[in-house]
Design a protein that fits this description.
The chain is mostly beta strands and 53 residues long. The chain is built from no helices and 4 strands. The protein has a 4-stranded antiparallel sheet with strand order 1-2-3-4, with no helix packed on it. The two termini are 12 Å apart.
Length: 53
């Protein structure tokens, strides 16, 4: 859910620059797979920014 902070046990990965070409470049964006869904996470707060289909 957007706004939810991921637990420290969930491993996140840096979003490659080539993926962020259609939106404003955001430093600190990471992604993770949670319940078979990819989520974009603010790495500083670990809060979910977006859930991808």
């Amino acid at each position: 859910m957007v706004g939810t902070a991921l637990p420290q046990t969930v491993e996140t990965y840096e979003v490659p620059d080539t993926v962020v070409t259609t939106t404003k470049q955001r430093t600190g964006w990471h992604y993770a797979v949670v319940n078979n869904r990819t989520v974009i996470v603010d790495n500083r707060t670990r809060k979910v920014i977006e859930v991808l289909n």
